[in-house]
């Protein structure tokens, strides 16, 4: 079993124990976080849904991320990650929203270097984001971002317990 599957198993169990639901908003990972959660038995009891928001138009129109924020900061930004998580939580009616945005490469994006990743987490208490700098191939950076999202989800679930 991979480390991602182990993290997902822990997150599913913690969400079920807490009686809460989770929604995802994924740009960089394009559905990897929700897919790895869905691979876990019991996920149907906690995974509310997910939005793959690869393009800014989806971030704005579906997740309600401010167009002016996207225009000024670009898509790879802590505030955007927090807004994506909050949008997923609200739009999908979940207890916790988690989001990913970043640069997997091979080229920089929005002036941010390859490996720049932000994970957003939103709960009833508010939304926050966490920045990372990963190294490796495009697939490796996406995998590290997925792991970071699951770790942040676990931390949010632990804080609610």
What features would you describe in this structure?
The protein starts with a helix and ends with a helix. The protein is α/β, with parallel strands linked by helices. Helix content is 45%, strand content 21%.
Secondary-structure content class: alpha/beta
Radius of gyration: 14 Å
Strand percentage lies at 15-25%
Shape type? globular
Which residues form runs of ≥5 with pLDDT under 50? none
In short:
This protein has 161 residues and is an alpha/beta fold. It is built from six helices and five strands; from the N terminus they run H-E-H-E-H-H-H-E-E-E-H. A five-stranded mixed β-sheet has the order 2-1-3-4-5, sandwiched between helices.
Primary descriptors:
single chain; 161 residues; alpha/beta; 6 helices
Write the layout of secondary structure elements.
Blueprint: H1 3-18, E1 22-26, H2 32-38, E2 47-52, H3 56-61, H4 67-73, H5 78-91, E3 96-102, E4 116-123, E5 126-133, H6 138-160
Parallel strand pairs: 1-2, 1-3
Antiparallel strand pairs: 3-4, 4-5
Helix pairs in contact: 1-6
């Amino acid at each position: 079993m991979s480390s991602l599957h182990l993290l997902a198993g822990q997150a599913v169990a913690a969400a079920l124990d807490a009686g809460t639901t989770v929604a995802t908003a994924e740009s960089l990972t394009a559905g990897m976080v929700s897919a790895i959660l869905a691979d876990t038995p019991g996920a149907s009891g906690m995974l509310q849904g997910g939005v793959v928001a690869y393009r800014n138009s989806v971030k704005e129109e579906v997740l309600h991320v401010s167009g002016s924020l996207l225009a000024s900061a670009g898509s790879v930004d802590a505030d955007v990650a927090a807004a994506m998580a909050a949008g997923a939580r609200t739009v999908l009616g979940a207890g916790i929203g988690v989001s990913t945005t970043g640069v997997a490469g091979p080229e920089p994006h929005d002036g941010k270097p390859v490996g720049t990743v932000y994970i957003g987490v939103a709960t009833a208490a508010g939304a926050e984001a966490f920045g990372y700098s990963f190294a490796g191939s495009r697939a490796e950076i996406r995998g590290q971002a997925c792991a970071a999202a699951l770790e942040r989800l676990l931390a949010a679930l632990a804080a609610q317990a």
